[in-house]
Fold Cupin-like domain-containing protein.
Amino acid sequence: MADPSDDIFADLPRVPEREVADAAALDAMLQTADRPFVVRGLVADWPLVQAGLRSAKDARRYLLDHRRDRPFTVSVGAGGGDGRLFYDDAMAMNFATVQTRLDEVFAHLDVNENAPDLRPIYFASIDVLGYFDGLHEANHVDLGDRAPLASIWMGTRTRIAAHNDVPDNLACVAVGRRRFTLFPREQFRNLYLGPIDNTPAGRAVSMVDFHAPDFDAHPRFRDALEHAQVAELDAGDALYVPAMWWHHVEGLAAFNILVNYWWRTAAPWMGQPQDALNHAILAVRDLPEDQKRHWRDMFDHYVFDNDDSVTAHIPGPARSILDRLTPESAGRLRAFLLRSLSR
């Protein structure tokens, strides 16, 4: 059956493809990349990929041979849809999240994987090292000095609304097929983001249905499409998604597995920018306009511009958190904020 979104996205440019000879070449490419790129066949030699090429059932059996004996978190959507895990009409989630055994879910899929009324099943962002023994050692990308978080995503045909992530991301398709539709960071206004405190998975998502865009309700989405790129990935292919780029993700096969790696270039003791945004909404957004203008200037001075004029007149030892943060000064600032927020 044709995908309803095919006509809409058929003419969008494809994410550029790059060739990588070895880990050193990939490392060099990642150090300088500021836009997405695809590497075909980057993980084609993984045993998990090879198992999936034999059959989805073989891929599931391979994972079961490495799983740890602990409950897994899985999202189960409503039947009769097209796999879109999103909000319902009341802005609650249209899926349930439960704890279960991986072997029980996989046994269900062994029998019902191609059933037309199968409810969407989605294991999201499962920590590879925490939930599997030996899987990472046999199936991983050498990312040099980076210390990434390796996660595995497994499920049936699903659609995940456009969102972004704070870290850089290398997404590797192990089983099935995926389609990513990507937008630069600055397109957030044209994606019509939903709530930031009621989200499917911790990040604000686009309210636009990519399979049936309502251009009357979301006219600026046409502008977003002018900047969109599409990547269709088969098993073994990988996609680099730069930090904060927006991406809509679809699992196109009856069963799909993706392994991704997240890493930040920021110092590990730094806080999360989303926390700062939430706090600014609490403390600044609803102030009178003249006070908001002052605080905008203060943020520019101390955070966004932050040149030498900020501290040149202060003796070095007295600059405290106005100097570049260290683990110690970041710890003091975090403790201060926790005390302040608990009052």
In short: The chain has two domains: 6-263, 273-341.
